[in-house]
Amino acid sequence: MKNASIILNSVLAVAVIALYILHFSSKPASTQSGESGEAIVAGQGSVVYIQIDSLMNQYDMFNDLKSELESKAQVIQDDLSKRGRAFERDYKDWEEKIQKGLITRGQAEAQQQQLAARQQELQSLGQQKQMEMAEEENVLFNKVMNALTTYLKKYNEEKRFSVIINSSAAMNTVLEADSALNITKEVVAGLNEEYVKIKSKGK
How far apart are alpha carbons 105 and 94 in whole angstroms? Predict the structure, then answer.
């Protein structure tokens, strides 16, 4: 059987959930052309862009859903940590009893099998929770992107832009552009307005 501290560390691997959750929000916003504080002056037929990192950080729906997911991840991490510490205590107790000759070989083997089964259960539980949280994170981003694309269809009925490009730190398709073509601020304001309406209906 592996050393208990190694087992505990493997169980706590679920902590990577936090990295999944912060996937977008931890990235610095793209700085190319800056965030324009001016009113959008791009006319119909223009090619405009949205800095998706900035949008995510300022979009209330995303931040609310992210906070909920972080809370769930913390509960899971705390539970697994508690289970892991309990396992570590029992493992050390088993080792101590063997060293002091307090149990028979048969008892030691039986307890070893029980500990091995618990180890497997803990590892399986950690993997299961990690997959569940990754799935929830995927749903979170789907909800946000669905809200964004739905809003942009309505938004562009009036603006009539030819193309709206996604610009992000990870996949930057805009190398240089006039800040007047950056519609991020206006889109965020509209999205947050829509989200306030949705939240008020849900109350």
Answer: 12
Beta-carbon contacts of residue 65 (< 8 Å; ≥ 6 apart): 140, 143, 144
Q: Total domain count for the chain? A: 1
Question: For 163, phi and psi rounded to 5 degrees?
Answer: -145, 140
Range of the domain at 99: 4-202
CB atoms within 10 A of CB 158: 8
Binned average pLDDT, 10 residues per bin, the chain of 203 residues? 46 39 43 46 80 92 96 95 96 96 96 96 95 95 93 91 81 66 92 91 68
Structure tokens at 108: 């030691």
User: How remote is the C-alpha of 90 from its chain's centroid?
Assistant: 33
Q: Which amino acid does the sequence have at 32? A: Q
Q: What share of the chain is helix, strand, coil (3-state, %, to 5)?
A: 70, 5, 25
Which of 92, 117, 133, 134 has its CA nearest to residue 5?
A: 92
Residue 20: both structure tokens together = 């999944």
What is the reported pTM? 0.73
